[in-house]
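ok so I'm stuck.
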Amino acid sequence: MSDTLGPIQQCRSCREPIVWTVTKHSGKRLPVNPEPTEKGDVLVEHRGSVLYSGIVLAAYREQQLKDGNPLYLSHFATCPQSAQWRKR
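replied:
not stuck anymore, here's the structure
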């Protein structure tokens, strides 16, 4: 079983694959890279058709990985044009 998220879309700037999630804290949309990574700090939970995301604090990151929970990176961390999309 793959931990790749879906549905996959394309970043409008760099054209790399992304998946849209909704942050648990603010309810805002957050693009994440669809493949899990050990460098990740975003935990994504499926609730029906909505993907909710939350940032995992460094103190809990290793435990999440040990528990088998895949972690993802915010696309803002890897997109070369991320500054133009961040809301101030």
